[in-house]
């Protein structure tokens, strides 16, 4: 795919490893990843591949800073410099989330009582966009994702699974983040909305946004993936290193 490329990747993951310690099971140690490395160039979509349990979501959570990293570097181009997320302070991780990396998970973690329109506009407001401009863009995004207008002023807690997911996508795609982390963004969507999301992803890729994604849907993967990273390989070495 002829996406715009720049020399420096927006994300560079270098030799990351992760082991979970299961405290409820006598501190049993469970290695998940061993020295996984990959880059996410600007304007390209890198998909995490591998079987269920290989560690795809774990990699995503390490990049977003929700899970710690045992060793290795997670280098993010952020604020005219490079931030190693694996060694960053919590406030630096929060700044990176606000300014540089957006996250679209399968489920919306909605704040109670906040209307859908506000939920979607919030990432723009956090970036200093005026209330009226943020609201207008949120309206455009909700309409594009076929959320009925009668729902815009309601909190998404009672929306259907697919509606919540579309609010989540609207929120994730509204701000111009240089890096998007996508964890099964189309899992509960119908074919028409899946097409809208594919179109949104292609637009952002053409604008130079880098994406790190988990897609189980082969059609979505085929439509936007530039490369697949085999998490399985790092997972098998991790598992093997225990029995060795
Ligand atoms: N917080 C945690 N504590 C302990 N073990 C965990 C934790 N998170 C993940 N794991 C384990 O790490 C392994 C990898 O899980 P992960 O969710 O990353 O896999 P995945 O490749 O995303 O799987 P799937 O495709 O099924 O979503 C699994 O064996 C899982 O049980």
UniProtKB/TrEMBL annotation:
Domain ABC transporter: 11-244
Regions annotated as coiled coil: none
KW DNA repair (keyword) present: no
Lyase listed as a keyword: yes
Cited Gene3D superfamilies: P-loop containing nucleotide triphosphate hydrolases
First and last residue of the signal peptide: none
A Pfam family recorded for this sequence: ABC_tran
Molecular function as annotated in GO: lyase activity
SUPFAM superfamilies, alphabetized: P-loop containing nucleoside triphosphate hydrolases
UniProt superkingdom: Bacteria
SMART domains, per the entry: AAA
Keywords linked to the UniProt accession: ATP-binding, Lyase, Nucleotide-binding
Protein name (record): Phosphonate C-P lyase system protein PhnL
Source organism (scientific name): Nesterenkonia rhizosphaerae
